[in-house]
Amino acid sequence: IVRLGGRWVASPLHYAADWMLFVLALLVVAKSVGGKATLSQHLGAVALSAAPAIFFLFAYAPDMSNVLPAPTAVAIHETGRILALIGVVWCGVLLLKTLSVAHGMGLWKSAGVVVLTWVALYVVLPLAMLFATGFLLG
């Protein structure tokens, strides 16, 4: 019980750390392709784009099948998932727009910056760690 409680309390900090890593990598990539925003402008833009993330909470609605009729419980569950999906899409659209405004670039260029950041974090960085581990152990 203590371990589960600790995970529950620590999960927002874990998500915040992941988000900050993404935000800083996004700043590096945006600056490398000609972005003009300062650190405070970039952080403000990304923070503004995260505002619809409040809809993610609806995805964690508890299971109500024990206290409500089955159709109502399913409706509550599915509505929460749909609202969370709307929040994800809204966050993505706002991220593209706020990046383009803050850095003085077009929407397509800001979309490219986001894609490059994802590739750098989830493809290049793990491969570099794998090669570095192989080099150090080999």
Structure commentary:
By secondary structure, the chain is mainly α. The chain is 78% helix and 0% strand. α1 (2-32) crosses α4. It starts with a helix and ends with a helix. The model has no long low-confidence stretch (mean pLDDT 89).
Quick gist of this model?
This protein has 138 residues and is mainly α. The longest helix has 34 residues.
Percent helix among the residues?
over 70%
* Uncertain residue ranges: none
Please report the distance between the alpha carbons of the first and last residues: 42 Å
- Broad structural category: mainly alpha
Order of helices and strands: HHHH
Largest sheet descriptor:
none
What is the percentage of strand-forming residues?
under 5%
Radius of gyration, in Å, reads 19 Å
Average pLDDT score: 89
Put simply, the count of helices is 4
> Quick one: how many beta strands?
0
Shape: extended
Q: Could you give the topology of this structure?
A:
Blueprint: H1 2-32, H2 39-49, H3 70-103, H4 107-137
Which characteristics define this entry?
138 residues; mainly alpha; 4 helices; 78% helix; 0% strand
